[in-house]
Amino acid sequence: MKGRTLLIFTENYVRGGGNRYMIDVVNAIHSKYDAIHFISNENAIFQEDLSRLKCDFRHFIVKFIAIGEIYKTISKFPSSLRKLLKPFVIILEPIALIVNTLVFYRIARRHRTAQIIACNGGYPAAQSCISMLLATHLCGNDAVLTIVSTPAARRWYAWPYHCVLDTIVARSTSRIIVNAKSAKISMHGLRNIPLTHMKVIYNGLDDNLGARAQRNDPTIVIGYVGRLDQMKGVKDLFDAFLHLYSKFPTLRLVLAGEGNLKEEILDTVKAAELGSVVSLPGHYTGDIHNLLSTFDVFVFPSYWEGFPYSILEAMRAALPIVATDVGGISEALTTNREALLVPARSTEALIAAIQTLIENPELRRSLAANARNRFLSEFAIERMHENVRAVMGYR
């Protein structure tokens, strides 16, 4: 592929695993191309993402109809207004598909690409990715789609349109890369994408940190890193902590991240005068290993996932883990061996699992050691890079 360009497209609005996965994929194959070009909406790729790239690149901001941005905007409106506007946005979706395809067709031809990778978070999610795939196919170039979250079912009120989207994706891509077997199974069952068309490549991480040093402190710190929103189950964790704190006054809670629940939790913390017990440091920009080294138990209570990097970071740091059994989490963790897995949306289950670890230091040590060993054997970044090169046809 020397002498041509790899073009990477994304439509994104939040920090998270989608961009991390995108950068890791590019790092695996950039040496096969002479130029790396990123195409995105404004503010879609963050500086911390670009700083991880192992190659030179160019980043182009493109104007297109971003349905995701429209939905994000109207979500801030009063409920009555949202209900009024939603049908108009639904009608706009197929129009945006066509308009964006024309925009991206010109881009694909201008960049003389050898290959285009459209990087999506969930599916169908940012439908501009589907426009890019179609435009690439019309140009006669190779297109690949990556997905890093469990796909959504076809919407009943837009069933024919969603069938069209799925057909475009299946016919316009040479392969679809997902980061969990659960996502592959869901793409087949919910969206009718052939199993043979999809390849699973798990997330990977560098292991240049070493295992976490054991803390010598009478307090027990429960930690979480991620978005502070409803679908991440953060409110369940906060409620579980409040219940356990009444029994175990040496408990502490750290919720690192940003999201729409942060202010609500902060208000509760202030009202209950728990500022010395509950910490919300915001989006963490430092070395994540330094933050994780202050935790005794890592809790990940999400309702909806693909294959989260946060879980791998906790495994790498040799932390005992409590997590919900959603998405691909059980593909990285086996309950009672590397973690305690609980049902999603159950505060009671979280309370029971966390209390078990509070009362059993030996179990904490055993789960932590097993989690780190599994990380080393299955989820190192070198293994991910090898798998990416194999799926993309490079050895």
Description:
The chain contains 15 helices and 13 strands. The two termini are 13 Å apart. A seven-stranded parallel beta sheet has the order 3-2-1-4-5-6-7, with helices on both faces. It has a six-stranded parallel beta sheet with strand order 10-9-8-11-12-13, with helices on both faces. It is of the alpha/beta class. Helices cover 44% and strands 16% of the residues.
What percent of residues adopt helix (DSSP H or I)? 40-55%
CATH class wording of the largest domain: Alpha Beta
Low-confidence stretches: none
CATH architecture of the largest domain: 3-Layer(aba) Sandwich
**Tally of distinct domains:** 2
On the 0 to 100 scale, the average pLDDT is 93
Strand order of the largest sheet: 3-2-1-4-5-6-7
CATH homologous superfamily title of the largest domain: Glycogen Phosphorylase B
Question: What would you report as the Rg, rounded to the nearest angstrom?
Answer: 22 Å
Q: What's the total number of strands? A: 13
Rough outline = globular
Q: Report the span from N to C terminus.
A: 13 Å
| SSE order, one letter for each helix or strand | EHEHEHHEHEHEHEEHEHEHEHEHEHHH
CATH topology of the largest domain: Rossmann fold
Q: Which structural class do you get from the secondary structure elements?
A: alpha/beta
Number of helices: 15
Relative strand content: 15-25%
How many strands, what sense, and barrel or not for the largest sheet? 7 strands, parallel
Quick rundown:
Helices cover about 45% and strands about 15% of the residues.
